[in-house]
Amino acid sequence: MSKAVEALSARIQARFSDDVAVHVAFDEVTVEVPAAQLLPVAQALRDEEAFSFEELIDICGVDLLTYGETEWDTVSASCTGFSRGVDRPHKVKHLPHEELRFAVIYHLLSVTNNQRVRLKVMLDEANLVVDSVVGLWASADWYEREAFDLFGVMFKGHPDLRRLLTDYGFIGHPFRKDFPLQGNVEMRYDAEKRRVVYEPVSIELRTLVPRVIREQYPVKSVTEGEG
User: Fold this and answer.
1) N or C: the chain end with fewer CB closer than 10 Å?
2) pTM: predicted TM-score of the whole model, two decimal places
């Protein structure tokens, strides 16, 4: 851990005491904040001279529903090809925060102090609501709309919270881990009705196994055989 990161971690912990939990990993500071304390903590990190995190770089959602479950062999995979299995899932870890399925992550930058910090707010699926930070950082506008669209997170106080990447009639939130890979509906243009129509999905759900080019079928390079 660098001295600058260690000092920042200590300052944040001293300033907010028991209101936050500070973690340092890979020389980066993550501050876990209760949803009710997000706005006061965020405003202090932006306005107080000791922090001066004047820029919001990104906001993203996280769904921990299948955390630690994978279709890939992460332990005994060889170098001869992909390790994806057809049988799923394979349990490799335990799900943390079992009662708090979702997280909203805020990446902040201090140009003044040349430092970065990550805020993490854990949310319950039954109460997927957190305060909007658009009033603190205007750049949060579309980031919050994106998290609402893809994960279903509601940002209280957002000036125009509506879908950003999917269609207005889209069903569900596509970045949730329980959202079907083939979607809930499919769309096509109906020549008779002269408009786009939605229909039940006709694709069968299956585990995809990637195509692998193995050594017994070598691929010649572009320059091979020239001259």
Assistant:
1) C
2) 0.77
Check residue 10 and report its DSSP letter: H
C-alpha count within 13 angstroms, C-beta hemisphere, residue 224 = 5
Please report, for the domain that includes residue 36, its CATH number.
Answer: 3.30.460.80
Which structural domain, as residue segments, surrounds residue 148?
A: 3-182
At 203, is the pLDDT very low, low, confident or very high (cuts 50, 70, 90)? confident
- Confirm whether 36 is domain-assigned: yes
CB 183 within 8 A of CB 201: yes
Interatomic CA distance for residues 113 and 115, integer angstroms: 5
Give me 78's structure tokens. Answer: 């060889």
Within 89-179, strands assigned E span 90-91, 102-110, 115-123, 129-131, 154-156
The verdict on residue 100 lying in a domain is yes
Task: Evaluate whether 19 touches 37 at the Cβ level (below 8 Å).
Answer: yes
pLDDT at 80 over 80: no
The contacts of residue 224 (CB under 8 Å, 6+ apart) are none
Indicate the residue type of 151.
F
